[in-house]
Amino acid sequence: MQRREFFKQLGTAAVVTTMIPAMSFAADAPKPKSPNAFSYKQAVEVITGGKPVEISSKVQLKVPEIAENGAVVPVTVTVESPMTDSDYVKAIHIFATKNGNTRCIDVYLTPANGKAMFSTRIKLGQTQEVAALVELSDGTFLSAAQSVKVTIGGCG
Amino acid sequence: MGKRKSLIKIKPKKYKDGEVVKVSFMVMHPMETGMRKDKKTKKVIPMLYINDVKFEYNGKVITTMKVWESLSVNPVFTTYMKINGKGDLKVTYTDSSGEVNEKSKKIKPKG
Asked: For the segment A90-104, what is each residue's pLDDT rounded down to a tens digit?
């Protein structure tokens, strides 16, 4: 019985001693939060204003399924659209759903683009979904999403 | 802050009037998220990222972009553009520190 208790105490002591430096470290350097932190739901609501979003095959989202380096993940969004003055893609928004700030980029296109495509490289902190939200000139919203497996996170 | 290196690429290199070409714009920029720490000093590196990018062709705005910090270091922006006569393609970009830079390329369609 005594032996058992001794081990218990030893165990708690070990936990406490390992905890203390970790806690003090956390106290003087709290993990900084992004000042423009936005959750995915919030961001979509802000953009659409509560309008329904349709998941459509017209929006093609090209992201690698496995990203070895989260710091550089190529993303390409292509939308089927004639891009004429009366019918064109107004905006393309790209989100990383689990990043501190989910909004990556908002692209506002015009008929002068000729083709509705946008491509860039984003950072992903962890394994998550990358989503694209597309606004057409008639006010409808289309979206597409794909999950990306991240081996090494690229944020922080 | 010195001038940043940037580059505008048009594909294909030879194009005709009325053709739709691919335009890429690259900038050398750190795109700091404000979450990374300096390994030596253990201090948080302050946020610094590109806010705003604007593509202009002969004074007409083609594409505007609102950018946040989750874009990669040295970002690339690629879209398409319809060639419409001779002129200038001007890209203006603004930093979160308020630094404004621009880069332009001459557009010379052949045939």
From this structure: 999 999 998 888 889
